[in-house]
UniProtKB/TrEMBL annotation:
SUPFAM superfamilies: Calcium ATPase, transduction domain A, Calcium ATPase, transmembrane domain M, HAD-like. GO terms for cellular component: plasma membrane. The keyword Cell membrane applies. NCBIfam families: ATPase-IB_hvy (TIGR01525), ATPase_P-type (TIGR01494). This is P-type Zn(2+) transporter. Keywords: ATP-binding, Cell membrane, Membrane, Metal-binding, Nucleotide-binding, Transmembrane, Transmembrane helix. The chain crosses the membrane at residues 30-49, 226-245, 251-276, 556-580. Its EC number is 7.2.2.12.
Length: 759
């Protein structure tokens, strides 16, 4: 408001003086302009005194000198125009900061203040500060979720766009985790509060946002240092022009055009614009200092679990003893697994459900903490757990399934199934790579990150496949938190380094790194507090967005400084040479200020390195094809399982024929749909020469293999046909499984950037 009042005063005074001058009252006009300029000089003088009391010379001293010199030398109109330059510059700074911090302000403005608590007598309105853990809250349509908690009703639809930048709504079912700050985009629902408002996710985001908005960027401090040097240069040029020519007007003209507003305003505006853009993408950058350091990063360090991987186990492979059916073994494991909350058990139960296997609940499962689960299924004693657990239960002979050491070397966990005292199956479970991880790391290299290292507490054998898949430069496994800190210091001694992590054990390393980047959506509060950058959406590719925004913002800040001060320098030379009078110089400097600030605001727009391909229209069918991939991956697993179980002889033919029918009913129509609508639309977005050609070539190879399988099945039905065809059929099934799995992975990778979310 003070800025607006000051600007209005100057505009009114300039207009009043102009009217007086037009009516022939030149002396009165001069007095009006002088009276207009002097309050602005007083305002600037207060700022200069405060700077001096703070131990530094205020850079506004040039503007103060220009106003006072103009009024004192009988150039009141020039003084008033310089006053307009100061008042207008401050108003323009306020407008520019408002534009730059729009996303941050939106986060603050959406903070919930009221909540509806459900009680025995009805619904009561309370302040969010009164929310207690365990309260049942009612969230109406359009309201903001006031606290973290769990969904009590059957379903809810939430808009997370202000938190994560994602435009698609999030659908939750009963028991789903609710994050404060999300907006109810559907019908009203009830939730159980698990945090107070003060300790909720959104409150933490608000704290981070305020810190980001209030921290003064180091580049602005550097600009102050340059400005001080510029003050000395201005004094030298102005004094030199006066001494050389004896013309004090030239010195005044130099002072007028030397006001370093571009240096003072442009740099912080560009950096704050970058922080605002990052916030709109679901990235909180804690101040301009963090943004500047992020812009210079050349080495990236990554935690593994939860950062490069999903942090969730999945069934990677299984083997069964002779005479045991694979689906039957997985069903037994899934039934037992339902009685445990161990991650291995949860993964096995999920795998069984994904295959459509019925999983009745056990009445009284017996769980040994960290060991396994035991129970009776249809009157049969069944065990599920580690090799040591089975041994304690008297199952020592693993019936050919004891190659667990080799399996453990390449997997996260191994679990054995025993039935009636005999081991009948082994399950290999592994953490899965984030779908967007390979693309993210390639994009980081494209931005100039030259070295990437994994720091993990996992075994080297478990980390090696992840490192190989991502083409990392180095891996340090079996790292304790203290060892991660040591590794961070070693890497940081060479070049600017950033660390990405999500867990409590990552917090010390995040704090020690030049830039700590916390996966805040699913990560721990400790990691978010320790990090300089917090990703509010559970997507690793936002690291690319953060670095691209930081580099562009810093580059624009430096360019804005160079542009403004370069033009001011040329104007100073012209003024010292008598080519620019004080009044014209004041008008010119106002234009330079506006130009530098508007250039700094270009940091609000994405640069070339940030512009992803436009999402495909719904008519292209990308969402439908991606949804079909789940079933196709299940079909690929069935191909492998059938090929491995062909020792049963010609009795395996019905299963093979069923697979052949599924290939023709699911895979071939899927490929034709892709080639008719999805691939042409994707080719237009991706550009280049025939970008979808390799995928179409894989389609044709799969079709040829399906045709070969059909001919082999026909041949297997003839006299002696099974003996001749079984080997080629097995090879065809393995080839189809490998080709289909590889094709799905490559296709998802190629099309990932054309959708609204990772495949």
């Amino acid at each position: 408001m003070r800025r607006k009042i000051l600007l209005a005063w100057v505009l009114l005074g300039l207009a009043g003086g102009a009217v007086a001058f037009a009516l022939g009252y030149g002396v009165a006009a001069g007095w009006v302009w002088s009276i207009t300029a002097l309050p602005v000089a007083a305002h600037v003088a207060i700022g200069v005194v405060r700077s001096l009391l703070g131990g530094k010379l205020g850079v506004d001293i040039i503007a103060l000198a220009a106003i006072l010199a103009a009024v004192g030398m009988g150039e009141p109109l020039t003084g008033a125009v310089v006053a307009l330059m100061v008042a207008g510059g401050e108003a323009l700074e306020g407008w520019a900061e408002g534009r730059a911090t729009r996303a941050l302000t939106a986060l603050l403005a959406r903070a919930p203040r009221q909540a509806a608590r459900v009680t025995a007598t009805g619904v009561e309105e309370i302040e969010v500060g009164a929310i207690a853990v365990g309260d049942i809250l009612l969230v109406r349509a359009g309201e903001t979720v006031p606290s973290d908690g769990a969904l009590e009703d059957a379903a809810a639809t939430l808009d997370d766009s202000a938190l994560t930048g994602e435009s698609l709504p999030v659908n939750l079912v009963q028991g789903g985790r609710l994050r404060s700050g999300a907006v109810n985009a559907g019908a009203a629902f009830r939730m159980r509060a698990e945090q107070t408002a003060a300790t909720s996710s959104y409150a933490a985001i608000i704290r981070l946002t305020r810190d980001a908005a209030e921290t003064r960027p180091p580049l602005a401090r550097l600009a102050d240092q340059w400005a001080l040097g510029f003050v000395a240069l201005t004094a030298l040029v102005a004094g030199g022009a006066w001494a050389w020519t004896g013309d004090s007007v030239r010195a005044l003209a130099v002072l007028v055009v030397a006001t370093p507003c571009p240096l003072i305003l442009a740099a912080p505006i560009a950096l704050v614009a970058g922080i605002g853009r990052a916030a709109a993408r679901g990235i909180v950058i804690k101040g301009g200092g963090a943004l500047e350091r992020l812009a210079r990063v050349q080495t990236m360090l990554f935690d593994k679990t939860g950062t490069l991987t999903t942090g969730h186990l999945r069934l990677a492979a299984m083997d069964v003893a002779p005479g045991m059916d694979r689906d039957a073994a997985l069903r037994l494991a899934g039934i037992l697994a339902q009685g445990s909350t161990h991650p291995v058990s949860e993964a096995l139960a999920q795998a069984a459900r994904a295959r459509g296997l019925a999983l009745p609940l056990l009445d009284a499962p017996e769980e040994a903490a960290g060991g396994g689960v035991a129970g009776s299924v249809a009157g049969v004693r069944v065990l599920l757990g580690s090799q040591a657990f089975l041994a304690k239960q008297g199952v020592a002979d693993l019936d050919g399934l004891g190659a667990s050491a080799a399996l453990v070397a390449v997997a996260g966990s191994v679990s054995f199934l025993a039935r009636e005292g005999r081991a009948v199956a082994v399950f290999v479970l592994a953490d899965t790579l984030r779908p967007e991880a390979p693309r993210t790391l390639r994009a980081l290299r494209g931005l100039g990150v030259t070295r990437m290292v994994m720091l993990t507490g996992d075994r080297a054998a478990a980390a090696a496949p992840i490192a190989a898949a991502l083409r990392l430069d180095a891996v340090q496994a079996d790292c304790a938190p203290a060892e991660k800190i040591t590794a961070v210091h070693q890497e940081s001694a060479k070049v600017a380094t950033a660390m990405v992590g999500d867990g409590i054990n990552d917090a010390p390393a995040l704090a020690a790194a030049g830039v700590g980047i916390a996966m805040g959506a699913q990560g721990t509060a400790a990691a978010a507090e320790a990090g300089d950058v917090v990703l509010l959406v559970d997507r690793l590719d936002r690291v690319v967005d953060a670095i691209a925004i930081a580099r562009r913002s810093r580059r624009i800040a430096l360019q804005a400084i160079g542009l403004g001060m370069g033009l001011s320098g040329v104007a100073m030379v012209a003024a010292a040479g008598g080519l620019l009078m004080p009044l014209a110089g004041a008008v010119l400097q106002e234009g330079i200020d506006v130009l530098a600030i508007l250039f700094a605001l270009t940091a609000l727009r994405p640069g070339r390195s940030e512009r992803a391909s436009a999402p495909l229209p719904a008519s292209a069918g990308l969402a439908e094809r991606e949804a079909e991939h789940t079933a196709l991956r299940g079909l690929a697993e069935a191909l492998r399982d059938t090929a491995e179980g062909m020792d049963a002889g010609a009795g395996a033919l019905p299963a093979i024929e069923a697979l052949d029918a599924r290939l023709r009913a699911e895979v071939l129509p899927h490929q034709r749909a892709e080639e008719s609508t999805l691939y042409p639309a994707a080719a237009q977005r991706l550009g280049g020469v025939d970008p979808m050609g390799p995928l179409i070539r894989m389609h044709s190879a799969i079709e040829i293999l399906v045709g070969q399988l059909g001919h082999l099945i026909v041949a297997a039905h003839g006299p002696g046909g099974w003996e001749a065809a079984s080997g080629p059929i097995r090879r065809s099934l393995f080839e189809l499984e490998a080709m289909l799995s590889l094709h799905l992975t490559i296709e998802e990778e190629a099309l990932a950037e054309l959708g609204d979310a990772p495949a």
